[in-house]
Amino acid sequence: MTSVALDVDSVRADFPILKQQIHGRPLVYLDSGASAQKPEVVTQAMSDYYRRDHSNVHRGVHTLSQRATAAYETVREKVCTLLNAARTSEIIYVSGTTAAINLVAQTYGRANLSPGSEILVTEMEHHANIVPWQIACELSGATLKVVPFHDNGVLDLDQYRTMLSDNTRIVAVTHISNTLGTINPMAEMIRLAHDAGAVVLVDGAQAVPHMEVDVQALDCDFYAFSGHKLYGPTGFGILYGKESLLEAMPPWQGGGDMIKQVRFAQTTYNDLPYKFEAGTPHIAGAVGLGAAIDYVSGHGLSQIAAHERALLDYAQAQASAVSGLQVFGTAPDKAAVLSFELDGIHAHDVGTVLDHEGVAVRAGHHCAMPVMEHFGVAATVRASFGMYNNYDDVDALFAGIARTKDLMSA
Ligand code: C6P
């Protein structure tokens, strides 16, 4: 099969937001790691849904409710295909990665953790994959253990092997670090965890938009991601879970749609996936995610990954030529994220000057304070790339960095 390279000019034309100027300069958006921009097909699908088809789902016999339900449920099939899940009952709609992880921590955790249990996370996790487990530990008496990473951002697999034990119940690990860009060796980590008798939750927030993910090939137990980083709407995301585990888990939130029968004497819960979907959901969010999946799949995730890798190589080559610039995260297997600091200049100042040049980056701790602590810095500047970025964007970033150095050292 021949693969056609990503046509970035035509991709850019699909994103209206990119056609504007910021402080009189063309917008260069390098903050897709925080949230990706939306192609017109996504906003159009959501607008069409509200203008033509909106009603509540699973509740009405009338035409609009049936249309809304069909639109909403079709997306479950698209997500199932995207992740190569075995069945749609394993696809739970949630508000995002954060909600997905909290769901597992509070339901699987409640049922399976007790004093003496251990949960392994890594030093490179986003706070969303740390704090829910800290809360689960507080509630259950379990212990949280942290697998360190090497200074280049590669996870210490020897330590991981050593730390896994008969007491390990859950391994919660990010597929791709939002701060370092490291792509973790998930299949191997999952195999090792299973050998130790633990289940694995993969935080896929930064992976799903940038690479092909196959939950069956990975054999992960849970996989979480957010629609808004995949060019879809905010407030909508996915928890994938193996059916046998989801079946055995108690529900999370109680309310409409997650029940079969409610009596004061006893309530029975709905089948999967609805057992975990209480209340009126973000129906337009599902519709938008469906359009985003079609858009991304139409271009091909492997083509997107190849394009972003080329941008990263180009950016890293330029970075290595800038004196006083230190890159954090140089793992060989790395996604298109460039975290750095400029000697003697605060990350927020770099971010502010870049903004005045029209370049949007994130400056701060990136909700990964332990990563900052590892390197003894308070903050870094992070440029994160998406399918619409091009080489001119990288040049604009480095022109902005040169300008920052001129201004700040004057
Ligand atoms: N990272 C960033 O700028 P939510 O907020 O639920 O959509 O995603 C949380 C989350 C979980 N895990 C990882 C690896 C993430 O990167 C994020 C979100 C954004 O890096 C916003 S803090």
Instruction: Give the proportion of residues in helices.
Output: 40-55%
Instruction: Kindly report the CATH topology of the largest domain.
Output: Aspartate Aminotransferase, domain 2
What share of the residues does DSSP label as strand, in percent? 15-25%
* Average pLDDT taken over every residue: 97
Under CATH at level 1, the class of the largest domain stands as Alpha Beta
Distance between the first and last residues' Cα: 55 Å
- Order of strands across the biggest sheet? 4-10-9-8-7-5-6
Overall body shape:
globular
Low-confidence stretches: none
Based on secondary structure, the structural category is: alpha/beta
Number of strands: 17
Bound molecules: ligand C6P
Gyration radius from CA atoms, angstroms: 22 Å
Count the helices. How many? 14
Please state the second-level CATH architecture of the largest domain.
Answer: 3-Layer(aba) Sandwich
Integer tally of domains: 2
Main beta-sheet annotation:
7 strands, mixed
- Superfamily at the CATH H level of the largest domain? Type I PLP-dependent aspartate aminotransferase-like (Major domain)
Provide an overview of this structure:
The chain is α/β, with parallel strands linked by helices and 410 residues long. It folds into two domains: 8-30 and 300-409, Alpha-Beta Complex (Aspartate Aminotransferase, domain 1); 43-297, 3-Layer(aba) Sandwich (Aspartate Aminotransferase, domain 2). Helices cover 41% and strands 17% of the residues. It is built from 14 helices and 17 strands. The chain has helices spanning 8-13, 40-53, 63-83, 97-112, 131-140, 157-163, 186-195, 215-218, 243-248, 283-299, 301-320, 347-356, 369-375, 391-409, and strands spanning 21-22, 25-26, 28-29, 91-94, 118-122, 143-147, 168-174, 199-203, 222-226, 237-241, 259-262, 267-269, 325-328, 337-342, 359-360, 362-364, 380-384. A seven-stranded mixed β-sheet has the order 4-10-9-8-7-5-6, sandwiched between helices. It has a four-stranded antiparallel β-sheet with strand order 13-14-17-16, with helices on one face. Strand 13 (325-328) and strand 14 form a beta hairpin. Helix 3 (63-83) packs across helix 10 (283-299) and helix 11 (301-320) packs parallel to helix 14 (391-409). The longest helix is centred in the first third of the chain and has 21 residues, at 63-83. 47% of the residues are buried. The model has no long low-confidence stretch (mean pLDDT 97). Residues 33-34, 96-98, 126, 128-129, 174, 178, 203, 205-206, 226, 362, 366-367 line the site of ligand C6P.
